[in-house]
Amino acid sequence: MDIASVDELLTTTRAVRKRLDLTRPVSREVILECIRLAMQAPTASNAQDWRWVVVTDPGKRAAIAEIYRGVGAEYLAQAAATATDPQTQRVYRSAHALTDTLARVPVHVIPCLLQPIDDSNRLVAASAWASIIPAGWSFLLALRSRGLGSVWTTMHLAREREVADVLGIPPTVTQAALFPVAYTIGTDFRPAARPPAETITFWDGWGD
Questions:
Q1: Are 157 and 175 in contact (CB under 8 A)?
Q2: For 127-174, how does the pLDDT look when each residue is reduced to its tens digit (9 = 90+)?
Q3: Rounded to whole angstroms, what are the CA distances from 203 to 47, 88, 149, 194?
Q4: Distance between CA 19 and CA 41 in Å, rounded?
Q5: What's one Pfam family the UniProt record gives for this protein (predicted)?
Q6: Cβ atoms of 112 and 51 closer than 8 Å
Q7: CA-CA to 68 of 20 to 30 Å: which in 1, 74, 130, 165?
Q8: How far from the centroid of its chain's Cα atoms is residue 205's Cα?
Q9: 126-145 burial, b for 16+ CB within 10 Å, e for fewer?
Q10: What DSSP assignment string belongs to the chain?
Q11: Residue boundaries of the structural domains of the chain
């Protein structure tokens, strides 16, 4: 295994919003390739109960984008205006920009679980989310390795049922995220600024 290449993939898979190529088509096969890789992720009790809804229809993408914008546009604009940290401010501005362009992103991918999630039971909820989050991240890594990008968004979940109605998703199915997928404009992504691992790592006890 080429550790350098793996490390580059892990450290440069960024949240991509403004650098999504809205004009270049994305083939069905490349999406399926990435889903095949994502399906190798572990699932709780080996349930393998993930499902993937891929949206390419322009009308449905527009409907989803309108719901997304209704949830997030005002909040993200205010957050961008009040953030004091420059990096955080850039993130909010980028997220707000996505509310304007989401309908034009060529593919929307919604990872789902074939079960409702009981958030009142932490063990059950954690196991359920652990069945879809690793697969979702593997999907994003696979996109990056093929010159595509995305961002893990959850804003639409505030109106999850409306999106479900657009796509015919049954009420027993839980949507986990919305990935807007496109080829990236350039591939020169860099590692993000993060604190040293030593400053956030404790050994054998909290604070040690």
A1: yes
A2: 999 999 999 999 999 999 999 999 999 999 999 999 999 999 999 999
A3: 33, 29, 35, 20
A4: 27
A5: Nitroreductase
A6: yes
A7: 130
A8: 32
A9: eebbebbebbbebbbbbbbb
A10: --HHHHHHHHHH--B-STTB-SSS---HHHHHHHHHHHTTS--GGG---EEEEEE--HHHHHHHHHHHHHHHHHHHHHHHHH--SHHHHHHHHHHHHHHHHGGGSSEEEEEEESS---TTSHHHHHHHHTTTHHHHHHHHHHHHHTTEEB--B-GGGGGHHHHHHHHT--TTPEE--BEEEEEBS-----PPP---GGGS--SSSTT-
A11: 16-199
| pLDDT means over runs of 10, the chain (208 residues) | 96 96 98 98 90 98 96 87 88 91 98 93 93 96 98 96 98 97 96 94 93
Instruction: Indicate the burial class of 85 (C-beta count within 10 angstroms; 0-12, 13-18, 19 or more).
Output: exposed
Q: Taking all residues of the chain, what is their mean pLDDT, rounded to a whole number?
A: 95
